[in-house]
Amino acid sequence: MFFCGIWAILRSSTGEYAKATQTVQARLTLLPGDGIGPEIVAQAERVLRTVAERCGHEFSYTSGPIGGNAIDDFGTPLPDDTLAACRDSDAILLGAVGGPKWDDPNAKTRPEIGLLSLRKELQLFANLRPVAPRPQLLDASPLKREIVEGVDILFVRELTGGIYFGESGRRELDEGEEAYNEMKYSTPEIARVVRVAAEAARGRGGRLTSVDKANVLEVSRLWRSVAADVVANEFSDLQYDVVLVDAMAMHLISRPRDFDVVVTGNMFGDILTDEASMLPGSLGLLPSASLGESGPGLYEPIHGSAPDIAGKGIANPLATILASAMLLRHSLQLEDEAVLIESAVDAVLESGARTADIAAGGPSIGTAEMGDRVIAALQA
Ligand code: IPM
Ligand code: MN
Fold first, then answer.
1. Does the predicted TM-score (pTM) go above 0.90?
2. Does the CB atom of residue 283 touch ligand 1 within 6 A?
3. Ion ligand 2 contact residues with beta carbon within 5 A
4. Does the N-terminal or the C-terminal CB of the chain have fewer CB atoms within 10 Å?
5. Measured between alpha carbons, how far apart are the two ends of the chain, in Å?
6. Protein residue closest via CA to atom 3 of ligand 1
7. Model confidence pLDDT, tens digit, residues 142-194
8. CATH assignment of 152-263?
């Protein structure tokens, strides 16, 4: 049985509990982006519309250009109007940005700058990337079933600092040109993302792992001591450990079940989550949520714009559909509706429906048909 709406638990004076549902109104901004972005966001939008209708919520939608198409049309990867629409909304759903058309290393700007600027402008410092192989797809993973079965990791990647946002540039030296990127983290930047991860660990398996490179990097030594202080002072109930990033890369494929919540910096998190995406078998299944202290959250699949299959109608929309479930959960507090979508995705996979990326060479369906199946499961 499915439930809709916020279950407000009201405690009466006699100590009895009553449950009530309510209509939620929300303004959503859709940023389809480049490559397969528009195709997959279209399916997630259909799913959101179906849930809203079924559960009596009122969502309004605006959309805006971002990434390469925005460079083409407006000369910038994040036009002011797009940023304003995002600021003015309750949550943002993004497809993907980038593609070979905008890859010229000498170009003035790049599609990715649009996404990085959006994260920075909205102060979305905590990027949640859950990795839990779905039981129906255990054999889609390149790793053995015994390794991936039961894996349930939440990565919390710092998203608005570190080497992604340090000073960068090039300079001429006598011996030739040199390029540099500065990596830095401050105590408050580290503490706030560790807190988000620790809170999440409290609500899950109670284990937190911080990943760094403290044997080499000064930044990581600060990271490690701040993380340890936050945990000791505020989260001493958690089981806490630290792992070096190179060792983590190894543990992720040898004993991924041993991890619960993993918190790390921007670049380590980028790399480790692409690696972890192979546990469930396809990058096409993983959603993410980027959250700040306040304001709208940004929801996107962790995969890229897949220009090689763009426009063919074969991309897997499930990561974006699952991102829309995270949107309902984290920005609109609609937990039941999020579960509704996740259960529908499970039911569709259970029925054997597969897009090409997870079909292991077997029969596959296209992007829109996968959307149809999820909607049919939602209405069942
Ligand atoms: C991601 C992507 C981005 C990142 C790119 C597109 C800028 O790889 O969200 O993981 O590196 O953060
Ligand atoms: Mn990435």
1. yes
2. no
3. 270
4. N
5. 11
6. 112
7. 899 999 999 999 999 999 999 999 999 999 999 999 999 999 999 999 999 99
8. 3.40.50
